[in-house]
Amino acid sequence: MANPSILILPGDGIGPEVMAEVKKIIDWFGAKRGLAFDVSEDLVGGAAYDKYGTPLHDDTMAKAQAVDAVLLGAVGGPKYDKLDFSVKPERGLLRLRKEMDLFSNLRPAQCFDALADFSSLKTDVVAGLDIMIVRELTSGVYFGEPRGIFTEGNERVGINTQRYTESEVARVARSAFELARRRSNKVCSMEKANVMESGILWREVVQKVRDEEYPDVELSHMYADAGAMQLVRWPKQFDVIVTDNLFGDLLSDCAAMLTGSLGMLPSASLGAPMANGRPKALYEPVHGSAPDIAGQGKANPIACILSFAMALRYSFDQGAEADRLEKAVEQVLADGLRTADLMGPEGGKPISTSEMGDAVVAALTKSL
Ligand code: IPM
Ligand code: MG
Fold first, then answer.
1. Which ligand 1 atom is at minimum distance from the Cα of 137?
2. Residue closest by Cα to atom 12 of ligand 1
3. 20 to 30 A from 260, CA-CA: which of 2, 189, 332, 345?
4. Which domain-ending residue is among 218, 237, 259?
């Protein structure tokens, strides 16, 4: 049987640096655990624009459709701020999500014990935190029509449209309920049904899917603004949160900081099963391209490494190996190793991006 295939798209800013560490991890699993992957690499975002004049070449799109999993670093940077909207780096990522139909974006916010003191919230509020945000990723205001900047009378008007069909809501709700069954069986759905019709529909559909197909799962509803407040007040009240594309974007950055640093949060974007039974899948850290620290060896590769752990779990059926990788990260943090983003006020010497990758590889080897 052919090896499972992975397409690596490092992208821009710190993307290539953090991805270089993930490659070490992939090599380790090939050499030590007999998990060989066929790895190919290509450009996305500003890097693709610089070479092809487009943030995602059609050939790259075709490759992404053909592989078992895509690993993406980050896209964007100030160099591309002035580009026409249609060729901005972010469009490359959004095209991948849309054309691969990756409707369910899993963003787990887990607080490692070693970092509980480091969060901007009180230790007891975040210690042991383990929640999962399920963000709808292919619809809503990110993609709704009409959109654009138009002229009305003597002024311009910017328009985006929040739009959800029943089936779009139902399928992401199902993926949240399925996940909840493997966790604490509890889902909180967030929208703004108090001001948006799309929110009213969202709430109705999520409730209906629950009543008809998942009566065993506990479901609550919250307005997204209140949800944001509860997320920082007492995040441990949540298990799985399901929400739309835009609210999920905001709430997941917020949840990331509960864990100590945006540099810690991985994500999996999953679509429908392919012919081989594996879901269409793209894995990426939640952090962006961080142009201010790019190229300096300061970036934290853990979010990207943990994204590969999610690939092991959700694409390659290697839950035990995913656990092994997550434990290795936990061990490195427990040993006190920190990239710059994880340095507390007490100071200390931060290790570099590649030293962090090496430390995780060493911890993996120790786990054998
Ligand atoms: C994210 C990012 C993206 C988004 C950007 C880079 C297009 O913020 O994945 O959270 O807005 O979805
Ligand atoms: Mg975001």
1. 12
2. 249
3. 189
4. 259
